[in-house]
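quick one, 453 residues, struct below
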Amino acid sequence: MAFRTPRLSLALPRRRRESRRVCGPHCRSRPCRITTIVVTETTKPILGHRRRWRCALLLPVAALTTFLATSCVFFNTYYNAEKYFRQAEKARAEAEAQGDVARNPRIRTQYVTLYDKAVRKASVVLEKYPDSELVDDAMFIAGRALYWQRDYQYAIRSFSDLEHNFPESEYYNDARLWRGRTMMALGQTADARALFSKLVSEGSAVGDRAGMLQGELVADEGDVRGAILEYRNVLDSFPDSRLAAQLWLRIGDAYVGIGGSTLLDSAMAAFDRSLRVASLDSVRYRASLNRGRVQHLQGQPEAALKTYQALLTQGSFRAWEGETRILIGRHYRERLLLVEALDQFERVRDDFPQSAVSAMALYETGLLYLQEHGQRERAQEYFAEVSVEKPGSQADSLANVVMTTCAELDGLIEQVWLADSTAAAILIPASFPLSDSLALADSAATVDTTATD
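---
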């Protein structure tokens, strides 16, 4: 019988590449969603090698699992910071569109809370993963969130750290721009203007935005003509700027602010140029609306009315229909077309309830009854309803001023009435009955007649 040598299988591993999801479905971070890993396959070893092969495989798998788990936590943390920041930006934009941010602290609190969450998540990234490639991203999120929380000192520190530590970052110039904006908020206007001028002269990617902020700074200082020069300088330096429509819009507003027939023509030309290059509905609407304002100032009320009415026919301007109808109502009120004016205000209240424009419509209605009809009690009912419709709105502030003025006027009228009563009492002493006063007057008249004879 021949002796047969047993075949020893060392079960050498075969390797292949395979794409797998290596973290749970909760992880939405792009880098760890689908990862290519190396899968090692073996046949069953013999001669007692099974345990050794199993240990050899488990060690790298355990290390890989730990690495992937850490990466998943990191990316989820950064993703949450980014998510909270986007939600805060959306909430702030909606509040600013209604014009209620400065007058209603409760609305501001809603988005400030989201900004705070974004700062906390970004801080975790900076503290626990300082060597990550997303550290500059986290710094930029934290700086902007701190700015909108009005924590300006820490915001400047965040932007400065990004500039100093990551000069090659894609956010480098954006951080410089935001540092300038934060200086504006702190009242450091000279430093802000110097930084904005540098960004414009460098021709950086944010130079047009810096130039527009420079113009706004000059306008806030009361130099409207200087602001126009700043805006035009930006248009000349950045002819392909996406902000061209907004710059022409600001130039037109500045001309309207200065006044004068010649400058009103220049304002109209600026609004026309803004319309030609505008892509945003908000800018197109504002430029069109301002054209109507200029027509009104030029003594063309009917042309202005047609401009306002044309805005109502464009579906893309539906969001501003309430504002447009209020202007149309004011036009009718100025021409004593009171029924038509009330109809416009009523439509705003019906179509846009519980909004800033519906509150303004209530205020305009009360003002109409007060000024045109002299119905103070009815007007005060409308003024009181404004604070219920949209507390903290601009209309609420105006209504409170009118109601306070009416109350002061009532008090003044009462003081005048009391003064008249006091003067009458002094002329006719209380110790003299009215009949005695009349008898005394008749006696004086008789004596005077006798003396004449």
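Confidence is low (pLDDT under 50) at residues 1-59, 61-69, 430-441, 444-453.
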